[in-house]
Design brief:
The chain is an alpha/beta fold. Helices cover 39% and strands 14% of the residues. It folds into two domains: 224 residues, Alpha-Beta Complex (Aspartate Aminotransferase, domain 1); 197 residues, 3-Layer(aba) Sandwich (Aspartate Aminotransferase, domain 2).
């Protein structure tokens, strides 16, 4: 590869760079179907000049998905599925067809698994947290590397007297040491229910944690919640090969449209353990006001789908999954893996004139057991981080969409940025900061640490031109001083509202 201290990533150098890239990563040449799909269904990216690098935040929808869903709605009459009239029955058929296809897409045995439709992955996780039979003898073990919606289950566990145990990730790769995971799983007494939660793929670092831990936990008497929100968009999840008890998903992260629909894939035997703290329309057999009582949750998924499901959007879930299946999840995986490997190499090799790295990557720098999500900061020749807000704004000027912040994964961020427990505890002793920006500035002022990160992520429509343009952007920071882009003040709520309204 070209020496990162001299690579300029000029537009006229892209063809030569891509030729070198395909020699080094020949698997990319097996994915021309992605280029054809991009030209047909994602042409707006190139027409509008966008570089989209936020697939972990949300997938991109294909234009064909939207057309097929629109045509379905325009050519039929559908009603609320909770009835026996013709429009209701037509909708019920499509809802159940979508449910069946979700199981088929993830190769789940319908006798063993069911699909509970929710608003998103967080809604799926709340269902588990509020209903799991935690008792004073229970354990809730979870990784530092978890989304806040998984962290939030700890509040249900503690409220019922369960013991909560966090399993720390370790630098430099932000992986969970397997010895510590297995030791924690060995620490569970009989006679109580225990829940182990971890992500198949980190939404912060891209680390892919071993799926073998699912059966290791089962062998020790644990139920397993495997967060696949970041994993499923670019990796095969086969629920006949790996059999977690709970799998939360947000469909928009896989194929972009529709938003507002997620799912909990649940093993029927484990779902039967859950005890809901309330009932809602559609979840019980009978309730009475005058009799002041209610009878039994409906078995299976219906007992967990409160009220009316997002029924007009559920056919779009099947359309989206069929769109991904037609391309092939293995094709998407191969392309993302090749682009990620090149990008990790290019980012690691980018240097200032004095040899100092321009980029600090948090997580694995080698393309092994990791996905297409890369967390990093941009540093000047003296090792000082550029303010993430300035980097994001500079990217936006070039129509590059990336993401900054903590990504709702505080555990990884705290370890990555060497934030100590006492430094964080301080923020829970007094008044809460008004926003993440205020917290960020307060911690930076007090410690000099920069507890925010920049993240790029690849997905279904990514190509070499995207990563090359991104590297050209990063190269603009070479030999610049962070003082040239001084620390930005935290925006006020009024400023944020005005910006969003513009």
């Amino acid at each position: 590869m070209t020496d990162g201290r001299h690579a300029c990533y000029a537009p006229d150098g892209r063809a030569a760079a891509e030729a070198e890239f395909t020699v080094r990563y020949p698997a990319y040449l097996t994915t021309p179907a992605v280029d054809e799909l991009r030209a047909a269904d994602y042409a707006r990216l190139d027409r509008l000049g966008h570089v989209y690098l936020d697939y972990t935040g949300g997938g991109l929808y294909a234009e064909g998905q939207v057309r097929r869903h629109h045509d379905l709605l325009a050519e039929n009459v559908f009603g609320n599925p909770h009835s026996q009239n013709p429009t209701s029955l037509a909708m019920t058929h499509l809802v159940e067809q979508a449910r069946a296809y979700v199981l088929a897409f993830f190769n789940a045995d319908p006798d063993e698994y069911t699909v509970v439709f929710t608003a998103n992955a967080s809604g799926a996780l709340k269902l588990v947290g509020e209903s799991y039979p935690f008792t004073p003898g229970s354990r809730y073990a979870l990784a530092y590397d978890n989304h806040n919606s998984v962290n939030g289950i700890r509040e249900f566990a503690r409220a019922r007297g369960a013991t909560v145990r966090y399993l720390p990730v370790e630098l430099p790769d932000l992986r969970l040491p397997e010895s510590k995971v297995l030791a924690a799983l060995d620490d569970a007494g009989p006679g109580a229910h225990h829940l182990f939660a971890y992500p198949a793929q980190s939404n912060f670092s891209g680390v892919q944690h071993p799926l073998a831990w699912v059966e290791a936990a089962h062998a020790r008497g644990w139920d397993v919640l495997l967060d696949c929100a970041a994993f499923a968009p670019t990796n095969r999840l086969d629920l006949r090969q790996v059999q977690p008890d709970f799998v939360p998903l947000s469909f928009y992260k896989i194929f972009g449209y529709p938003t507002g629909v997620g799912a909990l894939l649940a093993r029927r035997s484990t779902l039967a353990k859950l005890r809901r703290p309330w009932f809602a329309g559609g979840t019980i057999t009978i309730a009475s006001v005058q009799g002041d009582g209610w009878h039994s949750l409906i078995p299976g998924e219906a007992g967990f789908e409160d009220g009316t499901v997002n029924y007009l959007n559920l056919p779009a879930v099947e359309i989206g999954l069929r769109h991904v299946a037609a391309l092939g999840i293995e094709v998407i995986h191969a392309r993302v893996a090749a682009l990620t490997a090149w990008l990790l190499d290019a980012m690691s090799g980018l240097r200032h004139a004095n040899g100092a790295p321009v980029v600090q990557i948090y997580g694995p720098v080698e393309p092994v057991a990791r996905g297409g999500t890369i967390a990093f900061t941009v540093r000047d020749p003296g090792g000082v981080d550029f303010d993430f807000r300035r980097v994001e704004a500079a990217a936006a000027e070039r129509k590059i969409s990336l993401r900054t912040g903590c990504f709702c994964n505080p555990g990884d961020g705290e370890v990555a940025h060497h934030v100590q427990p006492q430094e964080m505890a301080h923020f829970f002793d007094g008044p809460a900061p008004g926003s993440f920006y205020e917290f960020y500035d307060l911690l930076h002022t007090a410690t000099g640490k920069t507890p925010s990160t920049i993240r790029v992520s690849l997905g279904i429509a990514s190509n070499f031109a995207d990563v090359y343009r991104f590297m050209a952007f990063l190269a603009t920071f070479r030999d610049r001083r962070a003082a040239e882009l001084p620390w930005a003040a935290a925006p006020t709520l009024e400023a944020v509202l005005q910006r969003d309204a513009a």
